[in-house]
Amino acid sequence: MKNLKTRFKDSLESINWLMLKFKKISPYPQKKVLVLEGGGMRGIFLTGVMQAFTDRGYFPWKLIIGSSAGALTGTAYAAGQIHLARDAFFTELLTGDFIHISNIVRPEKHILNLDWMINTIIKGNEPLNIRRLKKSCPVLITATHCPENNPPETIYLNSKEDSVPTALKATAAIPFLYRNFVRYKHYKLLDGALLDPIPYKKAIRMGFSERDILVITTRPKGYRKKEESFWIKNLYEAYYKDPKHKFLLRALDRFKEYNKLRDDLERKNSKIDVIYPPENFRVNRLTQDSAKILEGFEQGIKTAKEWLFKDKKKKKTSYLFPGVPILQPVAHRRTRAKRPRF
Q: Which spans in 138-282 are helix H?
């Protein structure tokens, strides 16, 4: 008798979840736009968050916008291949083939080998599934167009219309660390995070409400950038000394603009949901320590799970059948009252 009751309850639970799926009722927060900050190897935190989302089938997005590492992670997630980003952070990007610090004194050689990254991760033995990506929601990949003798401007390359490998290379082309520019159409492109590092305002300009947006950053809450050091400024000035790059050179130290984005996200645009790394997040842009990378990945998973279930305790338990709870209230149809019989 007990086994029969257990089997019956299991069946009812299955029916509940089927009805939830049919009615498109989700136990998770209902969002439309995912915005991902860049940050080089700090993108491992994003990968942990996306892994937690993928494991739970969480993909409510109408649009994803990402800069630099955020674009790479968001693209893999949209294509149903978050493992590409995860495996890259744990293996390929730690091999020494990607980051060449010794090239800092060799202006003709890249410090970040983006061609290798694209050929190994995006076009490698298990390539990014472009066909599946184009059937998913659009991914806007930020890049910075740097015309000669003119101010740089942000462009948003579209996964449904533009070359995805080229866009991912361009958005990761950090000035000075990647020598020269990425050429695409009539553009001369560099790092997408240069002018729009956390591109949530693009979503607002497109007509989405603040409540529609989830932002995932790669710096803890309260972080603010400082002005570039004297030595870093000297490196930039030496490399971009040609007068035609004068506007680009001015744009390379935009700490005030970045901090304004952060201020607005925490105060003015406070209805936007934000997932921040914890205070003890130890990964920086060029980290090559596998233990720190693993820790950052696990922190991403933990933080994502906390966010997904943050409202669960606030919601009242509802039932489609007695004794079988579901996580969201079910909307019941209004029924017309029957006339009493006399």
A: 164-171, 200-205, 230-239, 246-251, 255-263
Tokens of 27: 């136990």
What's the pLDDT band for 313 if we cut at 50, 70, 90? Answer: low
What is the distance between the alpha carbons of residues 261 and 43, in angstroms, rounded to a whole number? 19
Tokens at residue 82, please?
A: 């978050």
pLDDT at 314 over 70: no
Given a cut of 60, is residue 1 above it in pLDDT? no
Can you give the C-alpha Rg of the chain in angstroms? 23
- 210: nearest Cα among 148, 131, 169, 268: 268
Contact criterion met (CB below 8 Å) for 40 and 286: yes
Residue 235 is predicted with a pLDDT of: 85
3-state secondary structure 20-68: HHHHCCCCCCCCCEEEECCCHHHHHHHHHHHHHHHHCCCCCCCEEEECC
Is residue 299 within 8 A of residue 47, CB to CB? The reply is no
Structure token pair of residue 318: 């509802």
Question: Are 30 and 60 contacting, i.e. CB atoms less than 8 angstroms apart?
Answer: yes
- For residue 192, give both structure tokens: 């997408």
How buried is 69 (Cβ within 10 angstroms: 0-12 exposed, 13-18 middle, 19+ buried)?
buried
125: left (phi over 0), alpha (psi -120 to 50) or beta: alpha
> What are the φ/ψ torsions at residue 326 (nearest 5 degrees)?
-120, 170
The span from the CA of 93 to the CA of 147, in Å, is: 31
